[in-house]
Specification:
Structural class: alpha+beta
Helix content: 55-70%
Order of helices and strands: HHHHHHEEEEEHEEHHHH
Strand order of the largest sheet: 1-2-3-4-5
Number of strands: 7
Strand content: 5-15%
Radius of gyration: 34 Å
Number of helices: 11
Length: 455
Amino acid sequence: MIFFLLMQFLWKYIDDLVGKGVEWYYLIELLFYTSASLVPLALPISVLLSSLMTFGNLGEHNELAALKSSGVGLVRVMRPLIFLMLFICGSAFLFSNYVMPVANLKGETLLRNISTKKPALNIRAGVFYGGIEGFSIKIGEKYGPDRKLLREVYIYDHTSVEGKRKVIAAKRGAMDLTPDERFLLIDLEEGTSYEEVIPGNRKDRIRHPFIRSSFDRACIRFDLSSFQSGDLRQVRQKSFQMLNIDQLTVASDSLGVILTERKESVDRSFRSKYGFESTVDLEGDRIEEDGVVIAHLSPAMKHRALEHALRLAKTQRAYLDQLSEEFHWRSKVIARYRVEWHKKFSLSFAVLVLFFIGAPLGAIIRKGGIGLPVVVSVCIFIVYHTMSFSMEKMGRELVWTPAQSMWTASFILLPIGIFLTYKAATDSALLNMEAYLKPLENLKEWLARRGKKSD
């Protein structure tokens, strides 16, 4: 299963890995770390498939029937495997907590550094490329020898300290690397440059003035010194998938404290501005609150006060909308850490749940080998993975709590596993169509007898 998932990873990132001039041992190391990060996903379906095949073989060769005739029930046959599954669950948790964060960190670092080693090869047509710091590049089409000729080139320059935006658009172009691969050269033809101007007068800023200049040919050089790191294992940053249980707990608690302090700060700010026991008029005289503050003002002052209040209300409404988005974003970041915390436990528990589905189902269908068990296990795993992924997304979007999003799929399948185990232990004809058609036949006979009695 790890091999199949690894092939999916290769097909997904084949364009980012091939043709970069990267040493072979870096690619082997990347595949090794990727394989380690795929273990928690491959382990549940592996347990499901292996239990289906094992008990299917036992049932197909009547070995389960021989065991039952000698007084050994299905639950007793499953007992040593249950202890084995408990051991695998514990090992899977330890692997997810201690090995997987390191594998994710090293694997993501290698993948990021390899994919950005030669930016000229990584710039794709129709997609914004932001690998070069301070620039965003979009190309409409790449063609010609080695796909170095360009059409419809757009370059967005964000390197201005003053916040000025600059856009360069050209109909045609060509890109190449210098012999030492320190610089990326893009030759542009028939282009236009737009550069924003920030005037000193605030009224002139509403017009958004800019400078436009045209050129027949231009050459832009991008510094690639940041991509020339000799060690592709250099770590840049960490994400929530690269932390263990203790680190996730500390990170989520710290972010929660920051969010609480931020809310308290906003609360104190609004209370100091708008929470008052008495009010002061425009001349500075204190007016005792009698419920109608505006009644003490002159008509001209009332008009000014209402306009000022309306303008202030609109400003504060926009500020509150911004605060709401900020709090929502901070809550989603905290939820990502807490979802990952529960995920380390729920994936380990899923191994045990899928065993209790695969083992009795194999005893019921009595088919071994790689035919029917593979089809059944893949269908069951697709259902589980779809539910788990959808509910995990609901937890990240704050629709459900992190605990609900990560445990619901397992608790939905757990009663099914218990039901299948009971049916297999009691030799119930779960997949026998005659068992389901017999009640219909009895009902038909009963209706026929009632009809004869009435006649």
